[in-house]
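Provenance

Sequences were taken from public entries as deposited. Structures were produced by running a predictor on each sequence independently, with no templates supplied. The record for MFS transporter from Actinomycetospora chibensis is shown for reference.
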Amino acid sequence: MTTLLRRWSVLGRLSELPGPIRLIVLGQLAFNTGFYLVLPFFALHLTRDLGFGGALVGLLLGLRTFSQQGLFFVGGALADRFGTRPVALTGFGVRILGFLLLALADGAVLLVAGTVATGFAAALFSPAVEAELARRAGELERDDGPTRSEAFAMFGVAGEVGVVLGPVIGSLLLTVDFAATTLAAAGVFVVVLVAFARGMPRRPAAHAGEPVLAGWGEVLSNPAFLAFTAAYSTWLLSYNQLYLALPVELERGGAAGMLGVLFVLSAVLVVLGQVPLAELVRRRLGARALPVGFGVLALAFAATAVLIGFGTAGPVPAVVFVVLLTLGQMTVVPVAQDAVGRLAGERRLGAYFGVLASGGGLAVLGGSALLGSLLEAQGPPALPWAVTAALPLASAVVMGVLVRRVPALQPDHSLTSAERNSP
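Predicted structure for MFS transporter:
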């Protein structure tokens, strides 16, 4: 029984990781806790407290998304050139500055500055942290430790805990005021900055002295990775429908009050299931999990479309969507993040992770505009869901081709060295 509980325990698995990797995993919990202290309440603050109109609120939210997701490729290239540690620490400092500006802001100028700083901070530290995790976890796997996909699974679990904790703490602090919430978020990142400065060992930049543009050139000359990025981008677009399409469906079904419950359901599924599922997927499927996982994502939209088409009322279509989407997420994401290092040849990981994230940002920008127009149209309510199902389905096909044809993605690469050498 103790062994079984340990297998399903995130904390138990964390004890198997070296200090720097453990710091990165726990740091992800802190990143999301601090970020989600503020994000869910930002639009409410702009409209209720500052009296801004919808156009300015939309502009500020769009600026945040662009300055974060759209600029990941910049942070990734800088991490390769100057080192993951200094770029990550700089990102933490910029995030602290951004939150301080938002706490002080009572007009558009400071709000724009704080919003851009908050977003760009993640464009600096996220690809740097992911590249460092990929590099160190890859080294650990080669020494027959936990695999890189398992390390990324733990990274994802920690992030989901932060997604739950942040809004809960933020809602309590919001009873004081928005400034107190943002100052608390800044305090979280002060702790993160100190922890990483003390606990993350210095190591030379992987490509010190080389031009920053050289990293982008190498990524853009890797056709297998570009195809992988295009296919993977529909994952972020699919996940974004928790914020766009899901509230619309709950409103249609008369269950708008269920939105928070479904977010908690998704987080609980990840916290309880991500690590054991990642281990099962690694042993049984390897990289073949990529087409399978995208197939599950497509099924999430298709099943929801069918349920809506048959007139299913209440929250049932939304619950089915969230459960299947989360299962697809848990299947795809750790394997895909491990695959980035393999496709990159373990080189320029910052640039590769940055371009991967920016590709997803572009997909969200274009795809959400299309889906938003379908949601607002007077057509059948199942139509947006059916159309969106085609996107991860196309990714499943592309991933299936890549897994068969690209050596770095073939199943035996997902095994540890001990398993590959076993009779």
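The mean pLDDT is 85.
The chain has 18 helices and no strands.
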